[in-house]
From TrEMBL:
PANTHER family: IP08861P-RELATED, TRANSCRIPTION FACTOR S-II ZINC FINGER DOMAIN-CONTAINING PROTEIN. Residues 99-108 have a biased composition (Basic and acidic residues). Its main location: nucleus. The keyword Nucleotidyltransferase does not apply. It comes from Phaeomoniella chlamydospora. Pfam families: Med26 (PF08711), TFIIS_M (PF07500), Zn_ribbon_TFIIS (PF01096). It is found in: Nucleus. Residues 1-53 form the TFIIS N-terminal domain. InterPro entries: TF_IIS-typ, TFIIS/LEDGF_dom_sf, TFIIS_cen_dom, TFIIS_cen_dom_sf, TFIIS_N, TFSII, Znf_TFIIS. Necessary for efficient RNA polymerase II transcription elongation past template-encoded arresting sites. It comes from the Eukaryota. Residues 49-108 are annotated as: Disordered. Residues 231-271 form the TFIIS-type domain. The lineage of its organism: Eukaryota, Fungi, Dikarya, Ascomycota, Pezizomycotina. This is Transcription elongation factor.
Length: 273
């Protein structure tokens, strides 16, 4: 019995195959108090040893993450993250407050709500920015226009004219950068309302105007060919002899020069060689 107590490392399988557990358990009722006590001690010890080999739930802990049949325990499937629904379901160049299903009635004033509508449609045009953000910026621009141009009065003509002007600039196909700058936060609503006509122009428009102005300046600075006035040349139209003329080599060098004439009285022009 003492050898069983010290020399045996019990497992459920060992006790089941050898039936030694049943034998020792019967000895708990032995007539000898010492034998009965020792048998009870052994049974209790074996029970503790076997329980220590089991997991917290009372079942044997699988080795290497496998179950009793040797196959890997199935892992719970991860819950798929729900994808946010897209607010914009139409092509960007077709976006309006209607296609975005936006409620533009943010005030109790119909005139102001109509202005918010215009500004929303102008900002949303060709944009992929969320409807929520576009609406908040449109409302902020309208409030700034009412405060700066209308003195708080939606019936004020300067307020309405300003909103229409802002809308036209937002819809300008040649100036998409303006919308991007406003929606991106580079231009605040207050700044947008206060911008001059020249400030609202795109960089491309500004560069083109500078180019044209330079070309006109260059043309103006080109020295004009001086013309002489003759009192001997007669205009064939009005018969006056107040004719200005200039000469230029329009053909080969051995050919005579061409004389260009203009009557100072009637404006008739002609040439001869």
């Amino acid at each position: 019995m003492k050898e069983l107590e010290k020399g045996v490392k019990p497992t459920e399988e060992l006790l089941r195959q050898t039936a030694v557990g049943k034998m020792v358990n019967k000895l708990k009722a032995h007539k000898s108090p010492e034998v009965a006590k020792l048998a009870s001690t052994i049974v209790n010890k074996w029970r503790r040893d076997i329980n220590s080999l089991k997991g917290p739930s009372g079942a044997a802990t699988p080795t290497g993450g496998k179950g009793m049949n040797g196959t890997a325990s199935p892992r719970p499937s991860a819950t798929p993250t729900p994808q946010p629904k897209l607010e914009n379901t139409v092509p960007p160049d077709k976006r309006t407050h209607k296609t975005d299903k936006v409620d533009i009635n943010k005030t109790s004033d119909d005139s102001r709500n109509n202005c918010i509508r215009l500004l929303y449609d102008g900002l949303a045009h060709t944009s992929s920015v969320s409807a929520t953000k576009v609406l908040s910026i449109a409302v902020a621009i309208e409030e700034a226009a009412l405060r700066i141009c209308g003195d708080g009065q939606s019936s004020a003509a300067p307020y309405r004219e300003k909103v229409r002007s802002l809308f036209m600039n937002l819809k300008n196909k040649s100036n998409p950068g303006l919308r991007h700058r406003i929606l991106g936060g580079e231009v605040t609503p207050e700044r947008f309302v206060s911008m001059t006509h020249d400030e609202l122009k795109s960089e491309q428009q500004k560069a083109e105007e500078i180019k044209i102005a330079k070309e006109n300046l260059d043309k103006a600075m080109v020295a004009q060919e001086e013309k002489s006035v003759s009192t001997s040349l007669q205009c064939g139209k009005c018969k006056e002899k107040r004719v200005s003329y200039s000469q230029a080599q329009t053909r080969s060098a051995d050919e005579p020069m061409t004389t260009f004439c203009e009557c100072l009285s009637c404006g008739n022009r002609w040439k001869f060689s």
